[in-house]
Amino acid sequence: MMKGEWVRAHTNIALIKYWGKENEKLIIPMNNSLSLTLDAFYTETRVIFDENLKADELYLDNTIQDLAALEKVKTVLNIVREKAGIKAKARVESYNHVPTAAGLASSASGLAALAGAASLAAGLDLSEKELSKLARRGSGSASRSVYGGFAEWQKGTDDDTSYAVPIDDASWDIGMLFIVVNDKKKDVSSREGMRRTVKTSPFYQGWLDTLDADLSAIKEAIKQQNVHEVGAIAERNALKMHATTLGANPPFTYWSPDSMRAMESVRDLREQGYSVHFTMDAGPNVKLICKQSQLAEIKAYLLKDFSESQLIEARPGPGLLVVSEFSK
Ligand code: FM0
Asked: What is the pTM of this model?
């Protein structure tokens, strides 16, 4: 039996989105993406390789998960077993730390924590670059959660050249505020959504055509620590990504009426003089990009339209950490 240590990974939010795969099996993306790792949400995971187990097992928040949930996990475990020459099946124990139960559990933090935890349990001493590649095989966005602050996932051309690199530690005045939108609609997973968009949306090529310009502009804005520009570029990039889904067949959107209410509030805040922009991912929640020093004021303003429990402040967070004991 090989029992590893607990590893903590924080979630990240993309400011330049990953949306589409060139290689579905290896998870090689169509474009580079760039994200900010946050302190507010994280996953802690431990892996035990045990010869007595008949199959891999995943416990999430003390509840055993079904085969569908195990799929991404098994991809990572199989790669680790092959690298380490291990045959034993694994028991994976994982805890999601999210302030509310509003669908904010993230595959980015989950698969990044697993990459760290599984490689430790197997006795592998992987570099950050190798960990990023391993996390990527579980879920593309997880490649970026290996690092704190801003990270760029460089698409590369094959398994060996597709990984994230750190860009800036974000130890300046930037933060994010989540507006958690509750809606009951069944989501199109990001995996299915991007696949359908690449295959069928006539707008997909337009999305790809402007990415290099968005990436170089946001890197310059990060260098200048210009939160207004970083947010403006991220907002335009997110709206372009979401436009591609309307052109898909069958068409779909992640926006709900409350998402649009949140976007309107952001425009109001800008009229009040705040530097604030939004981004959205494969779900209805809206994430604001603003000065960390103005998080409290902006949250107070939003309380006229949203409840306290819907508003979550986030600051830049760290990369993968080994923790002596999990915190739940
Ligand atoms: O995070 O199919 O990583 O760049 O969040 O597992 O590789 O869950 F808005 C969408 C994340 C996609 C943008 O996709 O997909 C981003 C998204 P997988 P992920």
From this structure: 0.97
Q: Which atom in ligand 1 lies closest to the alpha carbon of residue 241?
A: 9
CATH architecture, domain defined by 175-314: 2-Layer Sandwich (3.30)
Distance, in Å, from the CA atom of 62 to the CA atom of 71, rounded to the nearest integer, reads 18
**Ligand 1 atom nearest 153 alpha carbon:** 4
Tens of pLDDT, residues 216-239: 999 999 999 999 999 999 999 999
* Cα-to-centroid distance, 81 and ligand 1 (Å): 25
- Architecture, CATH, for domain 2-169: 2-Layer Sandwich (3.30)
Q: At what angle do helices 211-223 and 227-246 cross, to 10 degrees?
A: 160
pLDDT tens by residue, 93-152: 999 998 655 557 679 999 999 999 999 999 999 999 999 999 999 999 999 999 999 999
Are residues 143 and 316 in contact, defined by beta-carbon separation less than 8 angstroms? no
In angstroms, rounded to a whole number, what is the distance separating the alpha carbons of residues 288 and 263?
9
What lines the ligand 1 site, CB under 6 Å? 14, 17-18, 27, 33, 107, 139-141, 190-191, 281-282
**DSSP 8-state code for residue 316:** B
Ligand 1 mean position, distance from CA 19 (Å): 7
